[in-house]
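Appendix B, example 12.
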Amino acid sequence: MNNSEERRRKLLEQTREMYGEKRTVPAVHPRYGAAYRQISGEEQLPAAGTFGIRLFLCLLLFAAFVSMDKQGSEVGQVDSRRIVDEITYDVDIAEVWKEL
């Protein structure tokens, strides 16, 4: 590489640093963040989600429900039969909408 090519390369690098888009992240909605990173070539670690915590909580609640059902116990005047009744209760959406 001769002097002029070396100088052009350095100027190009300086210009990229000065006007590069890497300094600031544009305002991108979180929903489209993965698509933006794929287009721009950025490699970032995915944001930590709460799926593991929610799954653990669901399993814990299900285990408590099964335990209540097997033992026939009540917690705060609520037994497993009442939980099943509340889950399977058919709600009339038109009635709820009128009450609002």
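Residues 51-71 form the longest helix (21 residues). The radius of gyration is 29 Å.
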